[in-house]
Amino acid sequence: MAYSRGTNANIIVGAAALFTYEAGVLSDADLPTYVDDESFKDTLSDDADFRNVGYTMNGLEIAFQPDFGEVQVDQLLDVAKLYKQGMQVNLNTAFAEATLENLLFAIAAPSTDLVARGAGNSYDLELNISSGVIGECPVERGLVAVGPGTGDCARGSELERIYVAYRALSIENVTVSAKRDEATMFEVSFRLLPNDTVGSYGKIVDRTIPAGAQS
User: Using an 8 Å Cβ cutoff, are 140 and 168 in contact?
Assistant: First the structure.
């Protein structure tokens, strides 16, 4: 095979659409089936169990942080062996749409803390900022993001990359602001946890959109 400098079609540029699984922890059985000639963004939008968080800022970042232990021996000035003793995966983004639904998601609050307007009420939505109680379980929700993948722009060879996180828990401080010269955004860092069956955090899928699909 002749030498090639590289393949520009494998360069990915562009943001992803982020969806939350409103029912809580996500499994493969909860994901909708891929539909021919349709982007997975549209498929998720038609599923009532998934909610699009809307605009995001600075894209989506997934950080893999392995933790390795060391074995040192007398005869070497460096370690003789490394062994994996831990793993941590984080997903970072910023919600540019400062809705109470997104704030509820960002602070990992239970859905019961968000009350919709009812008869005789003088508000549309009310978010109860609760301290919680002793022994309260943290709220975990599933995440799915759909962004551009490798491939060229010709119909039938377009690829989208799908990021699936089974258990996501917001663990960092979330700031709510109202400033004259700056949009209100929720910067959020999700700690991803493995599921109980095979210890998987989720998956990343490269999917070809068949010719004729609408973006």
Answer: yes
| The listed CATH number (2.30.110, 3.90.930, 1.10.10, 1.10.520) that belongs to domain 14-115+139-209 | 2.30.110
- Residue 5: strand pairing partners: none
Identity (one letter) of the amino acid at 146? V
Give the residues of the chain that fall short of pLDDT 50. Answer: 213, 215
pTM: 0.87
3-class secondary-structure state, position 197: coil
Quickly list H helices, 18-140: 40-45, 100-106
Q: Give the C-alpha distances (Å, rounded to integers) separating 1 from 4, 36, 48.
A: 9, 34, 49
DSSP state of 194: -
Report how far Cα 63 is from the mean position of its chain's Cα atoms.
11
> In the prediction, which pLDDT does 130 show?
83
Instruction: Give just the sign of the alpha carbon dihedral 195, 197, 198, 199.
Output: positive
Smallest CA-to-CA distance from 140 within 64, 88, 192 is with 192
Residue 192, classified by CB atoms within 10 Å of its CB into exposed (0-12), middle (13-18) or buried (19+), is buried
